[in-house]
Amino acid sequence: MIDQSDLDAAKQTIERSVELFHRNLPTLYTFEGARINPPGKHETELARLSAGVESSVEKALGLADRTVAQVEAARLAPHADPTGQLSPADLADANLRRAFIEEDVATMGLADLAERLKAVHAGGSKSSVWLHDRAAKRRWQVESAKTPQPPDLVVLGEVLRNLGVLGPKAGLSSEQQRLGEAAQSLRMFAARELRIAKDPEKEAADKAKSAQLTRNMF
Predict the structure, then answer these.
(1) Cβ distance 194 to 53 under 8 Å?
(2) Is 139 helix (H, G, I), strand (E, B) or coil?
(3) Alpha carbon 191 to its chain's center
(4) Residue 43 to residues 56, 59, 143, 198, Cα–Cα distance (Å)
(5) Would you put residue 53 in left (φ > 0), alpha (ψ -120 to 50) or beta?
(6) What is the dihedral sign for C-alpha 165, 171, 173, 174?
(7) Are 110 and 156 in contact (CB under 8 A)?
(8) Cβ atoms within 10 Å of 176's Cβ, excluding its own
(9) What pLDDT tens digit does each residue of the chain (218 aa) get?
(10) Predicted TM-score of the model (pTM)
(11) CB 114 within 8 A of CB 157
(12) How many Å apart are CA 194 and CA 138, to the nearest integer?
C-alpha cells in the first residue's frame, strides 16, 4: 500500500539526482558558458550526466501512476459492493447501530448533522462512519428536493463534499484525496526536472529572458 512517505522519498531522490546533475553540469562549459566538447560529444556527455535524473524521474512517474491507480480503486470500491468495505465484525456492529443512527440522522438539525459527520470521521469506528455517510447522503437528497431548501443545507453539502461523500471525491477518504493530489504534484515536479536536465541551455535562456522582461517593467 503506497502512502505519503513513499511519494516524499521519491521526490527527495529526484532532488538529490538533480543536485548532482547541476553540480557536474559546469564541466561541460567554459567559464564564459561556451560548450567545451564538439557536437555529438556534448550531447553524449549531457546524457551521461542526466542519466541519474532520468532514472529517478522514471521511478517517480511509475510510483505516481501506481498511486493514482490505488486511489481510483479505492474510489470505485464502494460502487462494487458497499458492504465490501466492512469486515464481518464491522457488519455485525453496523447492524446493531443502524436503526439508531438512521433515526438520529433523519431528525437532527442539518448544521448539527454536519458537525456530527466531522466528529465521526475524526474518531468514529469504521461501521459508524459507513452508516453515517449513507444516512447523511439520503438526508441530503431528501432536503435538496424541498422548495425552498433549508438554509443549513449548504453547510451540510460542503461537509459531505469535503469528506468525500458527495461530488467527484465521493468514495475517497480525506487521506486518499491528499494522496491522489500528492501523486499528481510529484508527476508534474518529476516531468519539469527531467525537461530541465534534458535541455539545461533552454532553461537558462528562458530564465534570462524572464529576468530581462522583469527588468524592463521598471
Answers:
(1) yes
(2) helix
(3) 16
(4) 20, 23, 65, 10
(5) alpha
(6) negative
(7) yes
(8) 19
(9) 899 999 999 999 999 999 999 999 999 999 988 999 999 999 999 999 999 999 999 999 999 999 999 888 877 766 656 666 788 999 999 999 999 999 999 999 999 999 999 999 999 899 999 999 999 999 999 999 999 999 999 999 999 988 878 876 666 777 888 899 999 999 999 999 999 999 999 988 888 788 777 777 77
(10) 0.63
(11) no
(12) 48
Quickly tell me which residue has 466528529 as its cell. Answer: 119
Report d(CA 28, CA 34) in Å as an integer: 8
- Listed as own residue / partner, the contacts of 114-122 with beta carbons closer than 8 Å and 24 or more positions apart are 114/152, 114/155, 114/156, 114/158, 114/159, 117/159, 117/160, 117/163, 117/165, 118/159, 118/163, 121/163, 121/174
Give the integer Cα–Cα distance in Å for 154 and 84. Answer: 31
DSSP state of 35: B
Q: What span, in angstroms and rounded, lies between the C-alpha atoms of 25 and 57?
A: 18
Residue 29, classed as helix, strand or coil, is strand
Nearest residue to 177 via CA among 193, 166, 188: 166
Report the alpha-carbon distance of residue 29 to residue 201 in Å, rounded: 11
Beta bridge partners of 35: 29
Q: For residues 156 and 109, what is the distance between their CA atoms, to the nearest angstrom? A: 10
